[in-house]
Amino acid sequence: MADVAGWIGAFALLLAYAAVSFKKLRPDSIPYQLLNALGGLLLILNTFYYRAYPSTFVNLVWIAIAVISWVRASARARREARSGVLPAD
């Protein structure tokens, strides 16, 4: 089960990176940050299971960055919705 979680996590992170690189998602978008957080979480399960603690640490920081960015993007979207401003492309 740890291996399946690791592979799905790795795929989620690569998908997020590819989507931003090919301009399918914006780096400040909520879907991008969710993919990052999910990928990091699943990789934490894998690395913790195998006691690869440095990788676990990196993924914890990765998730923290994704969550902070997600919160900021959500707050910005709410402000823009209240003011009637359309999101930038």
Show the helix and strand layout.
Layout: H1 2-21, H2 30-49, H3 53-83
Helix pairs in contact: 1-2, 2-3
The largest sheet is: none
* Backbone structural class: mainly alpha
Strand content bin: under 5%
Described by the principal axes of the CA atoms, the overall outline is: elongated
Mean pLDDT, all residues = 90
Number of continuous helical runs: 3
Number of domains: 1
N-C termini distance: 39 Å
Count of DSSP E strands?
Answer: 0
Name the helicity range. over 70%
Succession of helices and strands: HHH
| Cα gyration radius (Å) | 15 Å
Low-confidence stretches: none
Describe the structure.
The chain has 89 residues and is mainly alpha-helical. It has one domain. The chain is 80% helix and 0% strand. The protein is built from three helices and no strands. It is elongated. The mean pLDDT is 90.
